[in-house]
Amino acid sequence: MKRTPRRHGRRTAWAAAAALCLAAGCGNEPAPVHSEWAAMGTFCSLHLPAGSADELPAAAGVAREVIQQVNDRLTIYDTASELSRVNSSSGERPEQVSDMTRDTLVLACGYAQMTGGAFDPTVGPLVRLWGFSGGRTPQVLPSQAEIDEARRRVGYELISIEGGSAFLSTRGALVDLGGIAKGYAVDLAFDRIVKRHPMGLMVNLGGNIRCGGMARPGKVWQVGVRDPFEPTEILGTLTMTDGMAVATSGHYEKFVTIDGTRYAHIIDPRTGRPVTGMAGVTVVSDRAVEADALSTAFFVLGMRDSLPVLASLPHCGALFVPDVRPVQVYLTAGFAQRFSPAARVVGRVRLLAP
Ligand code: AMP
Ligand code: MG
Question: Atom of ligand 1 at shortest distance to CA of 132?
Fold first, then answer.
C-alpha cells in the first residue's frame, strides 16, 4: 500500500470531484474546499463545505496522520510493518499486533465468512502468483500445479487472533488487506474529523468515500460513479446521505497482460484465477470498510450470487457493470433510490429483482 500513486487514483478523484461540482451548483455558489495528497498507493482528498478554508489544513492533517498509521501497520510493501511480521512468521509463531491491525483482521475474516470466502484476506499467494502486490508479472500463464500449490496456502480459517496477537497457521500463508484497508482507514479518518465538522465533510481515498452532513446548506454531497470503460465519463450520480459510504472495484484499476490477454487484480480464491466477466461493482453502505470489502467480494461473486448476501444487508445497495459492451448497468433497489443515471446510459439501466 506504499507505492507511487497510479493514474487511476487521479481519475477516481476526478470522477468524484466532477460530481461534487454538480452537487455544489458551481455557478455563483461558493464551492466546497478540498486538500489532496498521496496515500496508500493512490490519492486521498478531504472536502469541507464552502467557507471552511481556514479549518481545512488542521482537518487534513488529522486525516493524513490516521491514514498513515493504518498504512504503516498494514502495508505489505514494507517488511517491517506489523502485517509483514505476521506474514513472515506464518506457520511458526504468533505476532503481537496493534488494535488497528487486529480490528482490520477481525473485520476481514467477518466479511470472508459472510461472502463464503469470495472475499478472502489470505488470497496473498494467489495475488502474487498473478503478478500483483509485489509479485513479478508471469511471462506465461501460471500452471494448474502452481495455482494448486498457492491455493493450499489460502483460506481465512488459517488466521487466528487471540488477545493482541495474530497467527497464520500455514507456512507461506500471506495476508493481503488491499481489498479492505483503504475503507478501514477512511472510517477512522471520518470518525475523527466528523466530531469537529458535523456540518459537512467528505473523505475520498482512491474511490473509497464517506460523506457526512452537507456540501453546503441545503445541498447534500454527490458522488459520480465512473464508467469502467470510459475513464472520463460517469455512469451517474449518487446522492450521499449523512454518514453514507461508497466504494468501487473495477477491472481497470490494476491489471497484468500475459500472452496478450489482460487479467484484473481481483482473484477468485475458489478457482485461484483472476475474475473475468465483471467490469465494475460499486457498493453503498453506512461504513467505508464494508463498502470496500463487499465491492471486492461482489466482483468475485457476480450479480446472481451477490444478491443473497445483499438480502441480509438492508442498509447496503450495489451497482454491477458486466464486462460487455455497450455498457450495461444493473442496480439493486437500495442503490437505485440514491442514484441518478447519466443521460448517455439511461436506456441501459436495469433493476435487479430482490
Ligand atoms: P479492491 O480494489 O478494493 O477491490 O481490492 C483489490 C485488492 O484486494 C487487490 O489488489 C488485492 O490486493 C486484494 N484482493 C484480490 N482478490 C481478493 C479477494 N478475492 N479477496 C480479498 N482481497 C482480494
Ligand atoms: Mg475492496
Answer: 10
